[in-house]
């Protein structure tokens, strides 16, 4: 019988190892949480220290050492009291309060940072726009200076720049700058007047607002709360309507998709039905043709049977088959003889052409000596000898 002790021990050790791993993971997670809480508490204490710094109540510069000793003694006493009073573990409410205060502080810091960043961004945008405008103006002035002075004010005879044109160009540009400065000063003055007017209006509104009584303010608070409740109810109703609309749109999209699929299936089914109808009509037509042929064959068979019964001397089917075979053989022989005749005609045409060519050559070679002997062959010249080829007859035998 096998010993089962070692496997049990290994299972127990494996289970203990897994338990220890889980405990270590839990302790690590708890340490991480405590580390985060300590960091949050340190930030909270630092923020409280920054908000409420220690104040010195004694300003006598002559007794600095005694003041330091008294302060150190008082601080040690306060620390001892705080150690006696401070709990080792914060309660859940205290942690919740600290966390809320930290969240609020971080939210304020984020909002302040956003405002500062937006302000800096606006300033940078304004500076970039001003730089672009100034760059465009400088490029325009450089182009005009090159056009009017470097090129336009050059003396064609000496090649030097005319000083009067340079001075005139500078005076014109300075005058334009002065006009622009005056325009900007007037615009700045109008803006200052508008700012003062707006400040007066704001101050008047603030003064009229201070005359409100406590009852009016309390009534406004009640109305504000009522409006906040109504706005909350309207927001909830709007949220419900949005959810309903989202569900409706989702359902509508699903139905549209399903409708498209059904439309495609319907078109496919219509095509299949049309093709099936055409195939059915064709099949019915073929069936009708077969039925008609069957009826004609039945009638012919019946007629032949009647005829065979009336006249027993009628040829048999074997005779008909033999005659058809003889007919096919004769047709084949006829086609062969027709092909042989075509080949013989082609050979005859070719031979006739060769005969014509040979007659032309013989007539030429037969007349040439006579012409040379008769001095050109006039009217009384000798006739050329006739070739005996023209008198010959050719007999062609058909090809077999």
Automatic annotation (TrEMBL):
Entry's localization field: Cell projection, Cilium
Region feature (Disordered): 52-79
Keyword Nucleotide-binding: no
Family: Belongs to the CFAP263 family.
Name of this chain's protein: Cilia- and flagella-associated protein 263
Keyword Manganese carried by entry: no
InterPro entries from the UniProt entry: CC_CF, CCDC113/CCDC96_CC
Source domain of life: Eukaryota
GO annotations of cellular component type: axoneme; ciliary basal body
Provenance organism: Vitrella brassicaformis (strain CCMP3155)
Pfam family, one: CCDC113_CCDC96_CC
GO terms, biological process: cilium assembly
Coiled coil location: 10-51, 217-251, 280-307
């Amino acid at each position: 019988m096998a010993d089962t002790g070692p496997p049990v021990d290994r299972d127990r050790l494996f289970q203990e190892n897994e338990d220890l791993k889980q405990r270590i993971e839990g302790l690590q997670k708890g340490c991480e949480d405590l580390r985060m809480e300590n960091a949050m508490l340190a930030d909270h204490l630092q923020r409280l220290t920054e908000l409420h710094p220690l104040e010195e109540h004694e300003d006598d510069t002559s007794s600095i050492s005694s003041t330091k000793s008294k302060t150190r003694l008082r601080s040690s006493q306060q620390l001892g009291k705080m150690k006696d009073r401070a709990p080792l573990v914060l309660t859940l409410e205290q942690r919740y309060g600290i966390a809320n205060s930290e969240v609020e502080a971080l939210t304020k810091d984020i909002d302040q940072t956003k405002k500062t960043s937006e302000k800096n961004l606006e300033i940078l945008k304004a500076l970039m726009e001003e730089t672009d405008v100034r760059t465009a103006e400088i490029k325009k002035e450089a182009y005009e200076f090159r056009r009017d002075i470097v090129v336009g004010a050059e003396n064609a005879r000496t090649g030097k720049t005319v000083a009067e044109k340079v001075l005139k160009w500078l005076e014109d540009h300075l005058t334009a700058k002065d006009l622009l400065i005056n325009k900007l000063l007037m615009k700045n003055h109008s803006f200052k007047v508008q700012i003062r007017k707006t400040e007066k209006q704001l101050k008047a509104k603030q003064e009229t607002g201070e005359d409100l009584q406590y009852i009016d303010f309390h009534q406004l608070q009640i109305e504000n709360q009522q409006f906040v409740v109504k706005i909350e109810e309207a927001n909830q109703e709007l949220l419900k309507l949005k959810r309903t609309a989202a569900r409706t749109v989702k359902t509508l999209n699903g139905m549209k998709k399903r409708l498209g699929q059904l439309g495609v299936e319907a078109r496919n089914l219509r095509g299949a039905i049309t093709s099936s109808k055409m195939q059915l009509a064709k099949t019915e037509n073929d069936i009708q043709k077969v039925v008609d042929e069957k009826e004609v064959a039945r009638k012919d068979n019946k007629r032949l049977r009647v005829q065979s019964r009336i006249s027993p001397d009628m040829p048999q089917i074997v005779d008909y088959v033999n005659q058809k075979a003889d007919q096919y053989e004769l047709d084949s022989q006829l086609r062969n003889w027709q092909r042989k005749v075509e080949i013989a005609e082609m050979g005859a045409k070719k031979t006739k052409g060769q005969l014509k060519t040979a007659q032309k050559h013989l007539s030429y070679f037969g007349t040439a000596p006579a012409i040379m002997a008769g001095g050109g062959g006039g009217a009384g010249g000798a006739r050329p000898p006739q070739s005996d080829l023209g008198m010959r007859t050719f007999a062609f035998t058909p090809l077999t």
